[in-house]
Amino acid sequence: MTAPRTLLDKLWAAHEILRREDGVSLLWVDRHLVHEGSHHGFAKLAARGLKVAEPDLTFAVVDHYAPTRDRAHITDPQIARMIDTLRTNAKAQGLRIYDLTDPEQGIVHVIGPEQGLTLPGLLVNCGDSHTSTHGAFGALAFGIGATEVAHVLATQTVWQRKPRAMRITVEGTLAPGVSAKDIALGWIAALGTDGAQGHAVEYAGSAIRGLSMEGRMTLCNLSIEGGARFGMIAPDQTTFEYLENRPNAPKGAAWEQACADWAALTSDPDATFEREVKFDARDIAPTVTWGTSPEQALPITARIPDPDTVTPAKADAARAALDYMGLTAGQALEGTPIDQVFIGSCTNGRIEDLRAAAAVLKGRKARVPGLISPGSAQVKAQAEAEGLDQIFTQAGLEWAASGCSMCVGMNGDLVGEGMRCASSTNRNFRGRQGRGARTHLMSPAMVAAAAVTGALTDVRPLMNGRAA
Amino acid sequence: MAGWNTHEGPALCLPLANVDTDQLIPARFMSVPRAQGYGDYLLHDMRRDDTGGLRADFPLNQHPEVSILVTRRNFGSGSSREAAVYALVDAGIRAVIAPSFGDIFASNAVNNGLLPARVEPEACAKLEQALTTGPRPIRIDIDTRTLRLGDLTVPFTLDDSWATKLINGWDDIDLTRAHGDAITAFRDTRLRTAPWAWPAAH
After folding, report:
1. Coil, strand, or helix at residue A67?
2. Is residue B187 part of a domain?
3. Does residue A422 form part of some domain?
4. ipTM of the complex, rounded to two decimals
5. CB-CB under 8 Å, B176 with A151
C-alpha cells in the first residue's frame, strides 16, 4: 500500500520529469500564459536565438496594458508599444493571441478557465503572481518571474523545489453578504501576508465545497497575498460542470477519460499536511482593508486599530499605514467617506461578481464616481445580456471594456493622489492604483454598497429583500 | 551572469516591513527595456518627491553607494515582477538581508545574482541596531552562509540549489537543455496517458 498523498503530492508527481540530488524538480508545463509584461522573457529568448518550444501550449493575452475605453485609438505611445511588442512576439513564435478586438479577450486568469485552457491536473505557469487562481480547478498553478518565463518558453519546463503542504479548512455556511473574498481577507488578516510563505495551500471543508468556481478562483487568486505561491482546491462536480463544453476542454471519449482521471485528484483521507488551519464560516463577516497590506483587514463593523495596542512587530507598519491612508486609530471603519469605486480584476471581475454588485445597485444611485471593467469580453457580453450594464450605468457608474485596468493602473486607469477608492481588487499597496492612491479592498457587493452611500458600508442591510 | 561567493560592501538599514515589489518599482516604469537600466526606478516613490527630485532625508539617497540592504520581514512580497530585482541590481545592490522574503522575489533574485539572505528576526534586529548610525561594511560568505559586521557574525539560510547557482552564476536554460532526452520522453508519455492535457481547439 502506498502512503497517503496530498493533492499537491499527486500533482507534483504527475509533472516531475526528474529530481536533482539537491531536491529540486524539473516539472513539465502544460500551459504557459504570456502577456505584455512578458517582454523581458521574450527578449531573453531572442538573445539566445531560441524559439518557443511548445507554441501549441503557449497562449498570449493582452490584458495588463489593455485600454478599457476607445481601444481603436491608443494615444499613449508606451502602451501601444507594449501591446505591439506582444503581437510581434506572438506572431514570430506562432502563438494564439487574445488581442484587443478578440471576442475571447480578457484578463489572463479569467479567460484561461473560461476558454477551458485551465483544467484539473495541469501545471499552469504565467509571469504573474495571481496565477494561483487556476489552482481552483485542481491544477498546479504558480506565478513566475521573467527569467523563468524565458526558461518555460525555451524548454516547456520549470525548476522548482516542492513547497510544503498546508491546508486551510473552512466548515459551515457563509452568511448572506459574505463571499470568497471575505474568507481570503479573513485568513490573510489572521495569518499575515507571509503566513503561508513556502507553502502550497489547499482549501477544503464544506464552505469551500459550497463555493461556485468563480468564488473558488477568487480564493485561490488571493493565496499569494498570504504568501503562498500556490492555492488549490480538489476538483468536483462543480468543476466538471463549469468546464464541460468549454472551447479547449476535452470532448467525447477524451472528456470521459479526463473526468475519471480528475476524480482521483483529491488529498487522501489520511494524508498529512505540514500545516493545518481551520476556520468556522459563521465567524466570517464582510471584510475591508484599512491599511497598505492585505493583512491589515477587519470586519466592516470593527474600529481601526490603535498602533500602540497591536503587536510591536506590526506597530510601525500600522502607524505608517494610517498616515498614508489618512485614517485615525479608533475610528469606525463604517462611514469612512470614499471618493470613487472600482469593480473588476482577476480577483473579482467575473460574472458572479458583477451579479452580486448589480443586486445591490439595482434601482439605486451611486454617490461617487466609479468604473466597472468586466474580467473578459465574454463576461461583458454575458452581463449585457442580463442587463447588468444598464443597472450600473443607471446608477451612474462607467461600464468599460476588459483588462487589468485600475487594479494595477498600467493602462492609465488610475486613482488620483490622496483619493480613496473602494476596490474589488487584490492589493492595497501604497501607490498600487496610482501614486498616493488610498485603496480599500473588499468584495464586489461591498464595493457596490460603498458606491450607494459614498462611504465604507456594511452591505448586509442593503441586501434585504434582494437576491444575493 | 558572473558567479560570486564572497562580497564585502557597505550595508544600509531600511527599517521597513513588507516592502512589496510595487514599492521596489512602481508599475509605470516596467515597459522600459532592460538595457536602459532600472536603477533610477528603485523605490522610486519613496525616494523621490512629486517633481521627481530625490528626497534628501531618504537613507538610500544619502548613501547611494551601498551594496547591501538590511531590512524587515516579507521583503519583495506581492507581484512577480522581476523588474523589482533589476532595479536593485542596477542600483548596485548585491544582497538583501531580511527575516523573510516573498517566494517569487527570492527566486527572481537568485536568477539575477542577487542574494536573498534570510536571517533570524533577532539577528536581523541586531544588524539593524548596528547600522542605526549609518552604513557599515558587511562581509558575506555564501559558502559558510555567514555575514560579518564588525565583531558580529550572523548565520543566514539559503536553499542549497540557490547557493550553487549564485556561486557558479549558472543559467538554467543551459542546464535544462542537457536533459532534452528526459523531457522528450516525459512529453511522449504524457501525450499517451493524459491526452486531455493538450488543448482541444488547437
Report:
1. coil
2. no
3. yes
4. 0.96
5. yes
